[in-house]
């Protein structure tokens, strides 16, 4: 009985184990591959419906033609965000292939920050215009008065910051200091402030105003101040505060 397990049986058993191990290995590789190319979450590509409120601002100086041209740029940021997300999802992450001078992962991640930053900035820009402008209302008004002394002083700071910026002005709530501040942003992805909630975004790139004001950026900012939707700004603040 002890010798009934022959060499042939041993080889057969070994082969079976080998096939099983190979099958499991293949399955593991396949599962890994599927995880790597899992369909990424894609951002919404904006349509004219997303700028419908802004299109009503023409009487205040920012024209329908400007907003429609601006929509095309916003869509471009959304499409590039989705394109990079797909590329990252399909990419095999290999530290040996990464390099800080140039590598595929560096190029994708750096340009992702620019594309997604541009998408988010424009989300806020279009969400918070199309209103009646004028002095701030609600909780934002209290925060502006606390930080700047008055709405007029805040608006002057915003306009001055806008003239000094190369691309963006951000009104954000700083959760550490529990107050608002007008930040400069020179590009879609520059000068972020950690632990802050963006509640208002003023685009001062030329594409936002050149059709209507040519190089008169100050006049554009005056027009912008007349179409801020303070209800939308307060809604963003409350969401950031978890209210």
Topology at a glance:
Elements: H1 7-36, H2 64-90, H3 104-127, H4 138-148, H5 151-164, E1 168-174, E2 179-185, E3 196-203, H6 210-213, H7 217-225, H8 230-241
Antiparallel strand pairs: 1-2, 1-3
Helix pairs in contact: 2-3, 4-5, 5-7
Description of the molecule:
The chain is mainly alpha-helical and 243 residues long. Among the domains are: 64-127; 138-241, 3-Layer(bab) Sandwich (minor pseudopilin epsh fold), CATH 3.55.40.20. 54% of the residues lie in helices and 9% in strands. The chain is built from eight helices and three strands. It has helices at residues 7-36, 64-90, 104-127, 138-148, 151-164, 210-213, 217-225, 230-241; strands spanning 168-174, 179-185, 196-203. A three-stranded antiparallel beta sheet has the order 2-1-3. Helix 4 packs across helix 5 and helix 5 (151-164) packs antiparallel against helix 7. The radius of gyration is 27 Å and the shape is globular. The termini are far apart.
